Amino acid sequence: ANDIVRNAATDASADLAEALLALTAIRIEEDKMTLESLSRESEQARDEAVKLTAMLRAQRAESERALKALAGEHRRVAQDAERQAAELHRYQRERQDIIARTDAACLKHAKELFRVD
User: Has keyword Coiled coil (predicted)?
Assistant: First the structure.
């Protein structure tokens, strides 16, 4: 009877060990599939990151070109404004000069008209 129990226990242990090995093999296969899936997802994410990086670099280059163009336009506008301000100042001086000469001529003429000999 002890031999039968021992044989049954050995058989049960062997069956249990076989079942555990089968479960372990299944888990290993599942883990392998999960790793492969994660690897594919990681590669896709890396590819997407590379694409986004390239797109951001292109946008940055375009922004830098636009900024340089805007800076050039700003310089041209500032130079034009300085030129116009100088021209306006010159016109104002000429106007004041004309007014002063006109006033002087009027005063001279008035003195001549009202001069008493």
Answer: yes
Gyration radius (Cα) of the chain, Å:
49
The model's pTM? 0.51
- What is the tens place of the pLDDT at every residue in 80-102? 999 999 999 999 999 999 999 99
> CA neighbours within 13 Å on the CB side: how many for 47?
6
38, 49, 87, 90, 105 from 100: Cα distances, Å: 90, 74, 20, 15, 9
Lookup: tokens for 69? 């163009």
Q: How many residues does the chain have?
A: 117
Q: In angstroms, rounded to a whole number, what is the distance separating the alpha carbons of residues 51 and 90?
A: 58
